[in-house]
Amino acid sequence: MKRNLLLTPGPTHIPPQLCEALGRPIIHHRTPQFQDNIKKVVEGLKEVFQTKNDIYILTSSGTGGMEAAVVNLLSPGDKAIAVDGGKFGERWVELCQMYKANTVVYKVEWGKAPTAAGIKSLLEAQPDTKAVFITLAETSTGVTPDVKAIGEVVAQYKAVLVVDAVSGLAVEEIKTDEWHCDVVVSGSHKGLMLAPGLAFVSASPKAIEVIKNGKTPCYYFDLRECKKAMEKVDTPFTPAIGIMNALVDSLEMIKKDGLSNMFARYKHLARAVRAGCKAIGLELFPDPSCATNVLTAVKVPANIDGEKLTKIMRDTYGITFAGGQDHLKGKVIRIAHMGALDEYDVLTGLACLEKVLHQMGHQFELGTALAAAQKSLNAK
Amino acid sequence: MKRNLLLTPGPTHIPPQLCEALGRPIIHHRTPQFQDNIKKVVEGLKEVFQTKNDIYILTSSGTGGMEAAVVNLLSPGDKAIAVDGGKFGERWVELCQMYKANTVVYKVEWGKAPTAAGIKSLLEAQPDTKAVFITLAETSTGVTPDVKAIGEVVAQYKAVLVVDAVSGLAVEEIKTDEWHCDVVVSGSHKGLMLAPGLAFVSASPKAIEVIKNGKTPCYYFDLRECKKAMEKVDTPFTPAIGIMNALVDSLEMIKKDGLSNMFARYKHLARAVRAGCKAIGLELFPDPSCATNVLTAVKVPANIDGEKLTKIMRDTYGITFAGGQDHLKGKVIRIAHMGALDEYDVLTGLACLEKVLHQMGHQFELGTALAAAQKSLNAK
Known about the structure:
The structure is a homodimer. By secondary structure, the first copy, chain A, is an alpha/beta fold. Chain A is about 40% helix and about 15% strand. Chain A contains 13 helices and twelve strands. In chain A, α1 packs antiparallel against α9 (about 240-255) and α5 runs parallel beside α6 (about 145-155). The longest helix of chain A is centred in the C-terminal third of the chain and has 21 residues, at about 260-280. Chains A and B meet through α1, α3, α4 and α9 of A and α1, α3, α4 and α9 of B.
């Protein structure tokens, strides 16, 4: 009878009605019936992306969507700027370098955000840059940059702005068109509350022009072929049909809820989790001025092994937080508040955190985190 | 109350207990709980592949698995032989050419199979060939080649043998190790009776040596990274968790059924479908000596539009057959008998085929196909 609650930055908790949708009988993908679902999904995703741009659907994890962005936009030798302030920024750098781009790495200290001014000065020095790669929610550190300001800068140059919104979409606001985000990548298993297996890539007219002239070989992730197929309401290869069908339902739920209500809810949950953590002496890891609402990364007390903490929470009590990555292993815990979670889920997470911290000898009065979170949740 | 029966070569019918498995709550993939499932899946797949080789799991459709084989085995300029006798052979050619391999195309007439002798003479002429690409079940034409004989030939050369078994695995026998199939590619949504979203690639020691020295850039489909991760019972990127979990159940069902019983059943169903079709004047499309048990491709009568036929069957009666591809559009129908289908499903398919052919004016006595199939199904 152990609970199975994921407070992790992907996969996220799947609500029961979407589990049911994932378990429905399959339909064939080369049929008018499935084409109806493609149309609904594209339309719904455009609302969530806040865009009129093309959206391409790929069957892969989020990284496949990132690879699609890189191989379609960059030809060998092209200049690229990639922001590296955590594990997912690092992935942009690895992808750009793998495909032989001339890559300028904008290194950012973990927990800090890249700035529009920083990007402007790099673009000034390298005006022939083809693409700038950033991350909407760097989940390894809990950081979100000022995408709007960065978008305004990049729009003044030849370069396209590429945003990894795999973890951020539908949780942290991104106004694709208004903020000049030329390419935005996301996935099915984060804010969209489904199983992993689908990636989405939006492309602005400016990006499409660049993609047209791309010279890096690609086949499975060829967005030119994907565009052709999707204009005929089709996909180039067999899509993850089950997830696509369930996505129709997920996007309807999101529409009913309302995007701005969702953003407000995640902010509300994030604030409560932070209040709870602070009350028992856990310090926020990122600079508070750039902390994302996707998840809360907090430092564990010096005498506590964070890896052991999350292991006990998960294996003994069924509540899953993420641990720290790389040099933060054991030193940080990451509590996601995204997707189908409500106030009671984050209180459950904090209750379990209190329980295990208490067992591990951290000194505090039981109930302190819960009370602080509850006050935050019910504040005017 | 319309039936939804897929007699298509992928996706295939998903049995209710696997639909249920696909709809179960998600678990996190970086946990011992999920690692148990990775272990079970790899072990189960090795039995189905009939191999002791490594098996790598990718989150993509079958084509992603094919791309992985090409980009990991071939460096630009490497010599490759690709058999093209239908749509899926054509895909091997396109992939090899896209990634700049020096590609010898072994063109085979649609409906015929490549021969071991044909491959031997090509290898004699090009002894430095790095890889030979074939298709276990060419579903566009309904053909299976003599993989065993081809394997014996290729094993005598430097080249590795790569088999697209996306549609064939668990339906048409393939003895990966015994037949010297160095790389075998498959997917989740064919013989394994699940939703699309996972691809599998097996690699022999001979193939692993070639992969080690591959120089084509790759990231998402990098099998070297995949091997490293899977040796730690992990995947490099977030896998299609839901399909993986359901695959544990699918592989258990297959194990209970027994591979040799399954192969015999598909042969039994194929024979009955062919007897039924023949009885109402529909001629088998491929050369009978190389017809696969995965599906039956038959020519439609000259006065009947095959596209209209399959459209009415699907949209009016809910029974889906596949139509012909490319120059066979409208001229051929393809009836799959793979995955979770039994005698009554193929009789249902034939009953609907009779109904619509009759409506469209084809002359025959109603019940003729059913009777012939029933006799075949119940023959000693």
